[in-house]
Write a structure and sequence with these properties.
Strand content: 25-35%
Number of domains: 2
Radius of gyration: 22 Å
CATH superfamily of the largest domain: Fumarylacetoacetase-like, C-terminal domain
CATH class of the largest domain: Alpha Beta
Largest sheet: 8 strands, mixed
CATH topology of the largest domain: Fumarylacetoacetate hydrolase, domain 2
Bound molecules: manganese (II) ion
CATH architecture of the largest domain: Alpha-Beta Complex
Structural class: alpha+beta
């Protein structure tokens, strides 16, 4: 059952300047990340408004006790792996205490204020050491759109509605938001050529995805049941799974993507906790009439009832031309997490169903989440129909795929009916030219 408590109340206000009405980080969110300042080491912090709350300073100031203190301790190091390994009770205790510290005007408000740093003076790092990274393919419109380009008559392969399709990605090249990505070189074989050549990708693309941070996980050989699976999800972020479509088209058969994806993946820097998103759980998307029911190990009443997430997703393009003319980033696609054919719990249950062990800090990608039409695509491959229908931007520039200097910006927000929003913070990176 979704656990909604006083920390989620839309009427809750904060004394921290700028927190109330903040589009991403009001007091109802409280995401956790790793930050440093020019003269201090990387450590855990909490985003509130435009400030970062320094957890180790707060521990030293005696602002935590009991179970919340254990959780704050686990979140105060140079990575959040110890925090991700906590059970839900400890994570909730930390959230509860943070909500008290920022919400009420306490006698020790000055002690709390002394632990706040302006976020724009801090550098963000990867929140955790990622042991393993798996990317799924649960966005059914994406799978259909891409499948159509290769197989117009049968876009979805017969396994799609039975198996949450995924592949093992590369953890080492996951980068925090803000770090530029270099255009990869690789083997390219356009359909017009008979042999491949090695060179810079000409069809560089992004993929709009939700990232899932694994919490406690399971022992090798012990699958997680669908009803326990969501308990092992500690939080969420945005993921841009950069993709070189020309490298991909040549290399992907028969084992799937390899060098077309592993040159870089960008994530948003804050872990939006599973607790923060409790009010935004919603019924799992209904399968269209005629689709098979999920096999029993991938189905349960509770997942049907609240396996979905009410999260809006957007991807923008900011090109050198738009920047020069001081124009706004171009909204390329506006999508929603309801376009996931498989739920988060189904992905986790499936991943462990053969006994594979997930560990704290493992990272799962949803796969590209596109909506049903041309304004809701999560990749340029779809928005420009394989490059055949280029976008025209307000600057007059045209884009089929990404060019050097382009910046891709992804945003995600969950909104209540009364206008409160909590967000993930930007997932952004620009493209550097390929190595000579
Ligand atoms: Mn992907």
């Amino acid at each position: 059952m979704a656990r909604v408590d006083q920390t989620h109340s839309p009427s809750l206000k904060s004394w921290v300047p700028g927190a109330d009405g903040h589009q991403d980080f009001p007091i109802q969110n409280l995401p956790i990340g790793i930050f440093s300042t020019q003269d201090s080491a990387a450590r855990g912090g909490v985003a509130i408004g435009d400030e970062i709350f320094d957890l180790s300073a707060a521990l030293k100031a005696g602002l935590f006790s009991g179970v919340a203190s254990e959780a704050a301790e686990a979140a105060s190091g140079a990575t959040l792996n110890d925090y991700l390994a906590l059970d839900g009770r400890r994570r909730r205790a930390l959230r509860g205490r943070l909500s008290e510290l920022f919400g009420a005007v306490l006698a020790n408000k000055n002690k709390v204020a002394a632990c706040l740093l302006p976020a724009d003076g801090c550098l963000m790092h990867l929140p955790a050491h990622v042991g393993d990274y798996t990317d799924f393919y649960v966005g059914i419109h994406h799978a259909t759109n891409v499948g159509k380009q290769f197989r117009p008559d049968s876009p979805l392969l017969p396994n799609y509605k039975y198996v949450p399709i995924g592949y093992h990605g590369r953890a080492s090249s996951i980068c925090p938001s803000g770090i530029p990505v270099r255009r990869p070189k690789g083997q390219l074989k356009p359909p017009t050529e008979t042999t491949p050549a090695y060179g810079p990708s000409k069809r560089l693309d992004y993929e709009l995805e939700i990232g899932i941070w694994v919490g406690q996980g399971n022992k090798l050989g012990s699958p997680l049941s669908i009803d326990n699976a969501y308990e092992h999800v500690a939080g969420f972020c945005l993921l841009n799974d950069w993709s070189a479509r020309d490298i991909q088209a040549w290399e992907y058969q028969p084992l799937g993507p390899f060098l077309s994806k592993n040159f870089g993946s960008t994530i948003s820097n804050w872990i939006v906790t599973a607790e923060a998103l409790e009010p935004f759980r919603m019924p799992r998307s209904e399968r269209p009439d005629g689709d098979p029911a999920p096999l029993p190990y991938l189905d349960s009443a509770s997942d049907r009832k609240e396996g979905g997430l009410n999260i809006e997703l957007e991807v923008y393009l900011l090109t050198p031309g738009l920047r020069e003319k001081k124009l706004q980033p171009h909204l390329v696609g506006a999508s929603h997490a309801r376009h996931m054919y498989w739920s988060v719990a189904q992905m986790v249950a499936h991943h462990t169903s053969n006994g594979c062990n997930l560990q704290p800090g493992d990272f799962l990608g949803s796969g590209t989440i596109s909506g049903p039409d041309s304004t809701s695509c999560g990749s340029l491959l779809e928005s420009t129909v394989g490059g055949t229908a280029p976008l025209t931007l307000e600057s007059g520039e045209k884009r089929s795929f990404l060019e050097d200097g382009d910046e891709v910006i992804m945003r995600a927000r969950a909104r209540t009916a009364d206008g409160l929003s909590i967000g993930f913070g930007d997932c952004r990176a620009s493209i550097l030219p390929a190595n000579p």
